[in-house]
Amino acid sequence: MEGYIDCHCHISAEEFDKDLDEVITRGKEAGISAIVAVAEFPWEAPKILSLSQKYKDFIFPCLGVHPVQAEPPDSQRSVTFEDLGQVEPVIGDNVEKLVGIGEVGLDFTPYNVKGDNDKDVQRQVFARQIDLAKKYDLPVNVHSRSAGRPVIQLLKEQGATKVLLHAFDGKVSVALQGVQSGYFFSVPPCIARSEQKQKLVKAIPLENLMLETDSPALGPVKLERNEPMNIKISCEHIARIKGVSMETVMQATTQNALKLFPKIKQLLAK
Q1: Which residues pair with 156 in a beta bridge?
Q2: How many CA atoms lie less than 13 Å away from 90 in the CB half-sphere?
Q3: Does the CA dihedral 243-246-251-253 come out positive or negative?
Q4: What pLDDT shows up at residue 73?
Q5: Which residues, at least 6 apart from 101, have a Cβ–Cβ distance to it below 8 Å?
Q6: Long-range CB contacts (< 8 A, 24+ apart) of 241-245?
Q7: Which pLDDT score is estimated for 111?
Q8: 164 φ/ψ angles, rounded to the nearest 5 degrees
Q9: What is the C-alpha radius of gyration for the chain, rounded to an integer number of angstroms?
Q10: What confidence tens digit (pLDDT) does each residue in 69-80 have?
Q11: Using an 8 Å Cβ cutoff, are 33 and 258 in contact?
Q12: Range 50-57 average pLDDT
């Protein structure tokens, strides 16, 4: 497979509802060959599955529940077992279509967790989703905001081996523990404005890196809608930091993505 793979994208977000066809076209024109679509909320699952059929052989779905859930109209709360209970049967019914379980993980940002109980429930929900991934032989697409160390610790405790840590915001020393376990790290376009992401890329071997956009978030310009075509910005910065060509980065990261998400190739062959 030639081209970029966007390994973590919220293509089902409402920000894309009005111009999704154009967004997809621009992504393809930028050289993207596949998008791994992740879910945050239970109600997103049908939409992501539908988009993966509409844009067959281009959008590949992951399902799961994010550690932070939306609370209408505009507030947030920590995940519960009820949230997981809504999406778990959908995962089981559609496992043949899925390339991964995600977006799952921990988020210990103070305004998202009210105390230790929220953290404990997040850990239990994350552990359950790691178990589901192992059961179905799928990788986990992981969120770890303000929780890098506990995420990697829990992944190790649960025996997870197929792991992508997206937009990792922790220390280099913690990330390198993940590298030692064979985990992958994906880099969003906000690397253009993030010294932390630049330090991370410098320290992590290219064999452990992938590209992502996290669209519509984490773009090169803060508070502007990000979209898949900006994946080239991630590639460009990795190439500059590593002192290699963009072509080298594209080939390496795509090879890494297909290694972690082998069902992309399997689904393309059907």
Answers
A1: none
A2: 22
A3: positive
A4: 63
A5: 62, 63, 64, 91, 129, 130, 132, 133, 136, 138, 139, 140, 141
A6: 241/198, 241/201, 241/202, 242/201, 242/202, 242/206, 244/206
A7: 87
A8: -120, 120
A9: 17
A10: 987 767 899 999
A11: no
A12: 97
pTM: 0.97
Pick from 193, 200, 186: which is nearest to 235 by CA? Answer: 186
Residue 8 in tokens: 């973590």
What tokens were used for 197?
A: 């992401």
**Are the C-beta atoms of 6 and 216 separated by less than 8 Å?**
no
Select from 169, 180, 175, 239 the least CA-distant residue to 211: 239
Q: Kindly report the three-state secondary structure assignment for every residue of 126-152.
A: HHHHHHHHHHCCCCEEEECCCCHHHHH
- Cβ neighbors of 20 (< 8 A, separation 6 or more) are 11, 51
For all residues of the chain together, what is the average pLDDT?
Answer: 97
If one counts every other C-beta atom within 10 angstroms of the C-beta of residue 2, the result is 8
**Is cis: bond before 42, omega within 30 of 0?**
no
Burial of 262 (0-12, 13-18, 19+ CB in 10 A): middle
Q: CA–CA separation, 100 vs 156, rounded Å? A: 18
Structure tokens at 167: 């937009």
Binned at pLDDT 50, 70 and 90, residue 269 comes out as confident
